[in-house]
Amino acid sequence: MATAYFISPSYLKEHSPLSGNIDIAEVYPFARTAEEIYIQEVIGTKLFDRLVESLNASPKNTTANETILLRKIRSALVWYTCYDALPFLDIKLRNIGIVRQGGQNLQNVSREDITFIRGECKKKGDFYINMVQRYLCENSELFDEYCCQTWNCSEIMPNTNMISGSDLAIDRNDDNDIDTDFVRKWLS
Hints:
two-stranded antiparallel sheet, 7 helices, elongated
């Protein structure tokens, strides 16, 4: 269903750490996957589809409440797009196979540097997505699709029980004991 992007190429370039001379056409497709993977998981399929429908309408018919929500989503989406795009900015899939792109007087960064930068992008995306979740929880009466009881199994329901901020997610409703020794070892 998704045909509208929640961010434009110019918005992405203007609000991200992407350099001014980057070919935005190589980064922008990751906005679609970031929408579908990160944003849809948080807000659920029904609300996601509602926002896409409003953006696809001619003329656009987003409500004032949808516009506020989209502004919050866009902040997270910029960082998640960068997070997803980073591994592919240097390494390309070409007809001859997988290649590393090099430039004049430029030095490629290490895998550790890429991991660090991706982690920083993820942290910022997680921060903004938590703001989206708080906004939706505080204003759930404005978005019927967010807390709907009539979802079917083919739709993604909003994931409001996950604590993000690391790659480890803990379900707040889990009654099982958590092996804290394992968690400490994993995070170290």
